[in-house]
Amino acid sequence: MTVRRAHSIPLLWQIGIIAGLLAIWQWAALIHPAPYLPRVENIVAGYVRLWHGALLWSAIVPSMYRLGVAFLIAVLLGSTFGITLGSLRGLDPWVRPVLEYLRFIPAVAILPASLLLFGATDKMRIFVIAFGSTFPVLLAAIDGARRVEPMLIDVARVIRLTIAQRLVRVVLPAALPSIFAGIRIALSIALVMMVISELIAADDGLGFYILRNQRLFLTENVYAGVLAIGTIGLALTLALLTFEKRVLAWHHGWRGLVDPKGV
Amino acid sequence: METAQPILQVDHVSKVFAPQLTPVLKGLTFKQEPGQFVAVVGPSGCGKTTLLRCIAALAQPDEGAVLHRGQQFDDPPPWLSIVFQDYTRSLFPWLSVRKNVAFGLRDLTKNDRDERVQAALCAVNLEHAADLYPWQLSGGMQQRCALARAIVVQPKLLLLDEPFASVDAQTRIDLQDMVMDICQTMSLSTLLVTHDIDEAVFMADKVVVLSARPTHVVEEIAIDLPRPRDQLATKETPEFLHLRHRVYTLVRQQAQKAAGGNVTEKV
Questions:
Q1: Quick check: is A21 in a domain?
Q2: What is the pTM of this model?
Q3: Which of A210, B10, B23, B35 makes an SS bond possible with A225, Cβ 3.0 to 4.6 Å?
Q4: Residue B170's CB: how many other CB atoms inside 10 A?
Q5: What does the pLDDT profile of chain A (263 residues) look like in tens digits?
Q6: Residue-range definition of the domain harbouring residue A74
Q7: Torsion of CA A30, A32, A35, A39, to 10 degrees
């Protein structure tokens, strides 16, 4: 009984706060009708329109495609290079300065250059998204690989694993908790870069949809697009957390014993 | 049957970590015959772990050589296995007990592998915990898991780096019996590094006593106590007590020398 109450009371609060915010919005829109303050029902209608029919294919799908491909590239590149660089200390002095420099370049800053390089193509957008989101994964993977228990490496050496096998079978799993932390950060950066890349010279995608409706003064669609991005971010984060929970089940159990206060 | 070549020969091994420090090992020499159980004891901080890493070819000596069956190795030889002291750090926390044990097996069909893993788990009495994760086990069970992983590859030489140091007294006694039993059934050559003199004398055929730093061999003492050995009966015999007394005296002399002499760095 008490358990159920403990769960349901915060949920009620959360729903209540959301409803309250919407009510305030609606009230403001009603007493003060203005183009930039559309009514809630119009925003909701715009939001629903986005998720089916032509708009799904011209706004949501292109954005998701770019985000998906670029994010995958970022995760693969970041973890592969990160684990290699983190384990092979000899490489560090060669690569580190370049990395430390590149990581401080905001991905937005390379947008014009990549527009010149790739033209107004999907490639350009994927490049920009991947550029921004590779670094958190890369740095987290380097860090994770460095902190692998040396004794586990000794165990792998006694079993005569090759360096490549050691990286895949020992360093990668050991660095995975750290890599996932990097991936979570990368996801939010990827979302930002997705929108920004679609604000420039685009003819589809959510960013373009928002920009276009802003120019047409269809403000309810602008807000609907913003809400859709929020939805995508939330859904991807939840999916990531679920996946992480499964893959890293061992880590939570292990950490739970090592450090009773949890992560 | 091969000629009686030593399974392990440590030949004037020296190791220095930094030129300005006392060498860790200096001209350390001893050998181990096939099937022999050798225990290495010495005062604390004398570089036992460094020696073990050199023997396992995880580190290379600065001078001298470590020969496995007359050969020098840059990487651990295929017939060598190690059980490390710290089981909480030497087991893979993301693998179940079964997978930890199977980790060392490659180039085998799935059936062969499963059989070998099962046999190793039986030998250490851990079949019931095969699907648990290491961190769900007690210390003694974790160390048995590490032991199973070491013997599953059917090694010829088993290195034990203070394997019983972090478990409680009762578990330690059980593990000692288990290890002796396994080494005998598998006719393994075993090298036990330990700071526990009772344990060394009780388990080994030969005890190698090390000096304080720079570490060399002070004396090799043959332990000719009959096998099988029993925790109570063997430890009450006058021979055991005599040998224990001798080893203890030697180690204590070295420890006093270390305390009075130059300051040793803990590595």
A1: yes
A2: 0.85
A3: A210
A4: 9
A5: 445 556 678 889 999 999 999 999 999 999 988 888 899 999 999 999 999 889 999 999 999 999 999 999 999 999 999 999 999 888 888 888 888 888 888 889 999 999 999 999 999 999 999 999 999 999 999 999 999 999 999 999 999 899 999 999 999 999 999 999 999 999 999 999 999 999 988 899 999 999 999 999 999 999 999 999 999 999 999 999 999 998 898 888 777 766 544 43
A6: 39-258
A7: -20
Spans of all domains in chain B: 80-154
Amino acid identity, residue B165? A
| Number of domains within chain A | 2
With b for 16 or more beta-carbon neighbours within 10 A and e for fewer, the B25-58 pattern comes to bbebebbbebebbbbbbbbebbbbbbbbbbbbbb
Please indicate, yes or no, whether residues A43 and A7 belong to a single structural domain of this protein.
no
Contact B151, B120 (CB under 8 A): yes
Q: CA of A156, closest CA in chain B: separation in Å?
A: 8
Is residue A105 located within the same domain as residue A151? yes
Smallest Cβ–Cβ distance between A158 and the set B56, B89, B92 belongs to B56
Taken as a whole, chain B contains a residue count of: 267
Task: Give chain B positions within 8 Å (CB) of A157.
Answer: 58, 75-76
Q: A interface toward B at CB cutoff 8 Å?
A: 149, 151-152, 154-155, 157-160, 169-170, 173-174, 176, 250-251, 253-254, 257-258
In this complex, the residue of A151, A159, A253 whose CB is nearest that of residue B104 is A159
